[in-house]
Amino acid sequence: MGSSILSIIYLIGSVTFILGLKMLSKPDTARKGNLVAAAGMSLAILGTIFLYRVNDAPLHNYGWIFTGLVIGGVIGVLSAKKVKMTAMPEMVSMFNGMGGACAALISIVEFDHLIKLIKNLYAPVSDDHLALQLLESSASKGMVIIILLSLIIGAVSCAGSIVAWGKLTGKVKDFSFNGQHFLNMGVLALIVGLSVWLVCIFGISPGTGLIVFYVVFLLALFYGVLFVLPIGGADMPVVISLLNSFTGVAAACGGFLYSNPVMLTGGILVGSAGTILTILMCKAMNRSLKNVLIGSFGGGAAGAAASGKEQGNYKEISLNDAAVVLAYANKVIIVPGYGLAVAQAQHACHELEKQLEEKGVEVKYAIHPVAGRMPGHMNVLLAEADVPYEKLLEMEDANAEFPTTDAVLILGANDVVNPAAKSDPASPIYGMPILEVENAKVVIVNKRSMKPGYAGIENDLFFQPKTSMLFGDAKKVLQELLSAIKEV
């Protein structure tokens, strides 16, 4: 009876994951989708704790289980409440790394159980007989393969996510060297080779197999560091998305290990959604997925070289002049960037939008796929300020509207509006699709200073004749603009 109820609970949990993911596709239903999926997960966890049976016996270590749940829950809630929106990418990376670590630890525990089981079952017989029995057992081989996949993918995701967290917080700098691509591929090939050998010798020599298993684990951690370490510039959202898909695949492997449909479904959904998002973002960044996997893009050296080229002079615009330009425009497109997130200026931006609309100005937002520090960063910020989803233009739609736009207001965006991506083959972002704001009649750029963006290069847009710089904190500038526009 208990197993039947647990199966129904798992089915409900799987359905809530699918419904929740569907709701997450739109900002106005994302919050509800998150709650639906969380409710399904909570139900599945409680069902597993109280209804799961091991050798027809219920779980007995409730003290350890609930202690872990309480500690982890308290840390998670406090971290989520404390974190600022500007630090959300770092938190996503850290949480994702914890998911990868869990998958790797599960693999270690289950491999150890498998080794002990083999020794207990076949201790009385000869090694030759043991080898024959195990080589004929496809179930044992399949189990080892799944454990290895979960170990490798989880370890890569864990190490890579921790490095990504360090890079986003500024604690870890971009690092690359000549021949790093070959080293990456060599380490990956060694991991695959040792894993195949382990599957082949498994059962023949459990002691050797255990040593090889831990060597594979250490190499996977090393590869995770190598994979993320050289990545820089505007490419960080891509690697966060890819690492997220890795964690999902590792979780799905855990679902196979435990024959747990909820774990399997959740892992498949996260893995597939993350993979699809990674491919879409690679397309938006004009990067190939192969280059992402070997960690060969986004190095800082090229950026430093490109940032040193000679530029002309930029011109500033006063607050009152900017207010006049915006107030008398027919159509204004706002381009949000990381500077908007740093200043927590999304609410002030929405107020400016409403004020301009009261004066008869058509206002829209142009969203670049990799603006900010994680996928959907700008969408989340604007949704928090209740900006209507219909006003958000994807890159292709925005580029089609820029030629008929009177004024573009850029708030902290840098690399995603840099024309060098189209005109300068020496630029590290060359070939990356951008928001073609230079096609508008007037461009106003709000930045704190002329300091280069995350890619470490100068922005050619800032030195064009139609571009004017409006320096200052985004939130303060928007509030002052709002006051000035009311007086126009």
TrEMBL record:
Keyword Hydrolase: no
One Pfam family here: PNTB
GO cellular component, one term: plasma membrane
UniProt KW GTP-binding keyword: no
Membrane topology qualifier: Multi-pass membrane protein
GO molecular function terms noted in the UniProt entry: NADP binding; proton-translocating NAD(P)+ transhydrogenase activity
Domain NADP transhydrogenase beta-like per the UniProt entry, residue ranges: 8-483
Superkingdom in the source lineage: Bacteria
Keywords of the record: Cell inner membrane, Cell membrane, Membrane, NAD, NADP, Translocase, Transmembrane, Transmembrane helix
Sequence similarity: Belongs to the PNT beta subunit family.
PANTHER family (UniProt xref): NAD(P) TRANSHYDROGENASE SUBUNIT BETA
Biological role: The transhydrogenation between NADH and NADP is coupled to respiration and ATP hydrolysis and functions as a proton pump across the membrane.
Protein name (Swiss-Prot/TrEMBL): NAD(P) transhydrogenase subunit beta
Native organism: Chitinophaga ginsengisegetis
